[in-house]
Amino acid sequence: MMEPLKKFQLKALIHVDFVAHEDFSFLDKSVLEKFEEVKKLGMFLEANIPKGMSTKDIIDGIIEEYRKDPQFFQRLQHPVPS
Question: Which Gene3D superfamilies match (predicted)?
Fold first, then answer.
């Protein structure tokens, strides 16, 4: 396992605010260990991926939204009150 990192160190290292992934029940323990530090830092979100949808489908959708509107993700983090 990687040595303990502080949240700001991890964000600076990989340039992300959080990591999202589907349920890990099917993964090997060695793979799970790689996400432990991220989980400890509160930067992990479990994604609910619908049956029949692939990770590629999700990433393609994210890229499509970003191309249409580069400020899309900033608004997700700081929504404007209605």
Answer: HUPs
